[in-house]
């Protein structure tokens, strides 16, 4: 049975998992090492020398050298990136879900009666334990009330306003600053060598498009994500608008990622980057093609500079961005490259 995806591409499973408090995660106070401030010359300066960095360099060399049997014509060079946990922080709760919950007080101000109506009353209380006990029906009510039935222009305005002020509670910085510097360098390096880079995310396509150009250098038309259908309509002044509908158009997670790639991009990627079981099928699809292929997974094993979670390699279990032992075993079997955040990255964020 397909999960119901609401306005911003949020499915039932995601609604539940994002409520987890994740007490097992290792997240001591941020500590910046001297090595994090060292800038190296050449491509990928935030990467330590090792097999992961070398895999990227070798792949680019092989696919761009016309004398190489693995050469890929420029028009066929495609690289896809998951977002949450691959390009920016996804713990302890997805940023888009924070937006969803932050919208509840706004609605309550517009409709004061909601303050005494469940599940809005529970959300307004701020009690995480109570919020975690909300039923599936309660969560659906929250999502419908906060995200459905608005125009794409209204969503864009509200989303941008929230992104401009919302900050992560740990780093006290905007969510758009919690981007992995090493991955920004990979995207820049690939584009400099003729690759077109795409974001392929399980979260809301419209939400990611709000900032993809600004922080990733990826235009909105190169963002593929979960999405509802929209309907052409007119506002009260007769202006044409696109209104969201409670009807699934694309579920872009797990098997939905290669389906979305085919639908929205039209070419099989040469390279794909992910970090969890939700990215497994995208990497499988990429690896099944002919010629040079690069499939990479980020392993969150650095609880000092970011978070440590798996449960692969004995890391703490998490429902958000789960990297299971089975996925780790498949990666080893298929020669996918596993990126150790702890060992492969000199620094995680640009501000370190």
UniProtKB/TrEMBL annotation:
Signal peptide per UniProt: 1-34
What Gene Ontology molecular-function terms does this entry list?
Answer: hydrolase activity
Instruction: Enumerate the Gene3D superfamilies for this protein.
Output: HAD superfamily/HAD-like (3.40.50.1000)
> Where do transmembrane segments lie in this chain?
none
**Which UniProt keyword terms apply here?**
Hydrolase, Signal
* Domain of life from the UniProt record: Bacteria
Is the keyword Signal in the record? yes
Under what name is this protein listed? Answer: HAD family hydrolase
